[in-house]
Design a protein that fits this description.
Layout (H helix, E strand, L loop, with lengths): L2 E6 L6 H12 L3 E3 H10 L3 H11 L6 H12 L7 E5 L5 H14 L4 E7 L2 H10 L1 E3 L5 E2 L16 E2 L6 H15 L1 H6 L5 E5 L4 H22 L5
Parallel strand pairs: 1-3, 1-4, 2-3, 4-8
Antiparallel strand pairs: 5-6, 5-7
Helix pairs in contact: 2-3, 4-5, 6-7
Length: 226
């Protein structure tokens, strides 16, 4: 039975960094819809360009597009041992679709982690975050003054959706449209909350502990739903 994890949390919570770290440590792929969309923008795919324009305005991409992206990705054989989802689901309809995909493919229970960070800290992090204009690598707030990407030597720039006005709108959109996912998942025995305001190593340790516990509970229950 695979180790299937959803990392939830508002923009700036650090879920992308933690998802990548956890996936690497456990030998499963990190599946980020943001990475897939960035690849599409580079190749000038119309749907990806439209999706990027929405994200730059602080809006969410439509459910049908995101569901199809994830459905196709979960069909790849590297997801058989499990996966870590970052950025999906964002809405209850997406979550219901993911439940159906999991049932159809017999992938076992979903461990759902909600990373909680105060809004003032989120705003500070997003304002100082930088991203590589070439490969999309993020620079955390602590090293937000980095000018050159350590992976590809591309220029580190502020994301278009990290300026003050868009940050405020993104957080409002998250609370209005994505927060209901907590209500959708909270009663499941595999749902956990993590304090994302801690130092990164402490967050990683807490994540490993709660995910291991939730996965054991899910495996024993033999179901992804409570």
């Amino acid at each position: 039975m695979g180790l299937n994890v959803i990392m939830m949390g508002p923009p700036g919570a650090g879920k992308g960094t933690q998802a990548e770290r956890f996936a690497r440590d456990h030998g499963v792929p990190k599946i980020s819809t943001g990475d897939i969309l960035r690849d599409g923008v580079k190749t000038r795919l119309p749907a990806a360009l439209e999706a990027k324009a929405k994200m730059d305005r602080g809006e969410l991409i439509d459910d049908a597009t995101m569901i199809e992206i994830v459905r196709n990705r979960l069909q790849q054989p590297d997801t058989n041992p499990g996966f870590v989802l970052d950025g999906f689901p964002r809405t209850v309809p997406q979550a219901r679709a993911l439940d159906q995909i999991m049932d159809e493919r017999g992938k076992g229970p979903l461990v759902v982690v909600d990373m909680v960070v105060p809004e003032t800290e989120l705003t500070r992090r997003l304002a100082s975050r930088r991203i590589c204009s070439r490969c999309g690598t993020n620079a955390a707030p602590a090293d937000g003054n980095v000018q050159i990407c350590g992976k590809c030597s591309g220029e580190m720039v502020q994301r278009a959706d990290d300026n003050d006005g868009v940050v405020s709108e993104r957080l409002k959109v998250y609370m209005r449209q994505t927060q209901p996912l907590v209500d959708y998942y909270r009663e499941r025995p595999t749902f956990r909350v993590v304090n994302g305001a801690q130092a990164p190593d402490m967050v990683a340790h807490e994540l490993a502990t709660v995910i291991g516990d939730a996965a054991s509970v899910g495996a024993a229950a033999g179901t992804q739903r409570s």
